[in-house]
Amino acid sequence: MKAMDLLWGRSTKRSRGPRPVLTVAQIAEAGVEIADAEGLTAVTMQRVADRFGFTAMSLYRYVPGRAELICLMIDTAMGAAPVLNPTAGWRAALREWTYRLAEVSRQHPWLGQATLQARPVGPRELGWMEQAVTALTGAGLSGARCVDAVLLLSGHVRNQIQAESGIAADGGGELAAALAETLREHAADYPALIGAAADGAFGPDGTGFDFGLTCILNGIAAAMPGE
């Protein structure tokens, strides 16, 4: 069974073999739990099978391989798309959408890595995109530009979560301290960066995400007719 069939519930009836004792949803949820705790690389068919006391081979009756499993995990982790306020205006709606996506991505930091590759897309992930594109409908952009704008916002979230993961991994601030020391040693070569660092650059000030989001929204507005 292909990933698209599994994602969209196009199940194939089995005429032979033992009766299924697991569901595809249970398998996907187990994969999400492993990825949340240990990262995406820890997810293997055997690790998921171990959760149920099965062998990896027995799991292939439900999911044909790891690639299909990850597709299912993505859609499971995304959850239901937020329902945006249609009267709030496209800018407020997209800001809310982006922050909600960031919340989900923080809960499942492996999503950024998993969603980089070309793959089949499931109903929940498409539901998120539908809400964001709907918020832009009627604002004067073509359908293609609406989708481009939503993908740009998704990429902004991905970059933010990756940056936060890096800061978390550098809990002692060793990398930041090493960068500061390097800049001091080569101050003559990097005067602009020295000045930026003095203004708080390279630190976890928590404002970069909103600044970037505002810049993107301003860019979207500038692309609209009449702006």
UniProtKB/TrEMBL annotation:
Signal sequence segment: none
InterPro entries named in the record: Homeodomain-like_sf, HTH-type_TetR-like_transc_reg, HTH_TetR, Repressor_TetR_C, Tet_transcr_reg_TetR-rel_C_sf
Domain HTH tetR-type: 21-81
Domain of life: Bacteria
DNA-binding region coordinates: 44-63
Keywords carried by this UniProt record: DNA-binding, Transcription, Transcription regulation
Any GO BP: negative regulation of DNA-templated transcription
Single GO MF descriptor: transcription cis-regulatory region binding
Protein name in UniProt: AcrR family transcriptional regulator
Originating organism: Actinoplanes lobatus
